[in-house]
Amino acid sequence: xxxxxxxxxxxxxxxxxxxxxxxxxxxxxxxxxxxxxxxxxxxxxxxxxxxxxxxxxxxxxxxxxxxxxxxxxxxxxxxxxxxxxxxxxxxxxxxxxxxxxxxxxxxxxxxxxxxxxxxxxxxxxxxxxxxxxxxxxxxxxxxxxxxxxxxxxxxxxxxxxxxxxxxxxxxxxxxxxxxxxxxxxxxxxxxxxxxxxxxxxxxxxxxxxxxxxxxxxxxxxxxxxxxxxxxxxxxxxxxxxxxxxxxxxxxxxxxxxxxxxxxxxxxxxxxxxxxxxxxxxxxxxxxxxxxxxxxxxxxxxxxxxxxxxxxxxxxxxxxxxxxxxxxxxxxxxxxxxxxxxxxxxxxxxxxxxxxxxxxxxxxxxxxxxxxxxxxxxxxxxxxxxxxxxxxxxxxx
Length: 396
Prior knowledge:
By secondary structure, the protein is of the alpha/beta class. Helices cover 30% and strands 24% of the residues.
């Protein structure tokens, strides 16, 4: 039985043991995905196992997984404090062979950090006042001890890692929220302070220019959230999006009210930078860069005005900051890492989506049994937006 399904032994001391009544002696399906970059496209890299259904933690719950977003993380990465190629959908460049788009990771990948499901059991030591009960529709906050790998049932060690969602909210939409969308929300909210400062410096007639780089799920969430937090709040803000691929160009256009710039990687950097500045009416003030390459960050820096800020995922920043810190100082700009976000922000995100204030990006739902075909399509950029795997068709 793969150990991925269970909390490792060195973490058991953090949580009270399960009680006999919480044990379930049956098996469930689990899907694990290895990196195609490591094992090669010609070999199997999607595996399905029969594993034991996890026990119910005394202070937590067991969730029947209904939907899970296509989400990839490094084996050694911290879940709640790092970025990932999760939510990037078909724009992630996961298996591309182009030398200009090699943003793929070489270690094993595990999916399953974006989970929506139904509470199947609750631990015996959970307070009845917690607000969560059996049968509730929930999403799982991506905590550090989150067991990697898709499985039909998931053990959640603490009840406060569950966020209740309205019964009428689509579980496939909800599955997009816990990781990628949450990270995008945290990024936009951090950018809000910068936008406010720049708007004050430029005065009532000034315009703050924001550039969102990428058109995968992360960038599309950021684009929608930025339009809500900035445009809807009457900030004088101009939003542009830089696409890395043609299909991303079409997706960004669907959002409307934004200028779209195509960053064709075959062109010279000077041409791409000039094209970006032309579309943004000069240098930009804020860059939200969901790219994972040195080339993307280098281009973003050269598009920024003095005093500007580029926001990167924490993991990407850890890798690229040593290389670009001196250049950022020379240009008078700031590179700011952004972590995933908090449980409270996840609750806020649920409210924004459920109320219709923020529309989710396009997504497609596939049976979990088709995981291998789905990953192949993602590798070939044949799925626009997000890919969601469905484990059960009914909450019963």
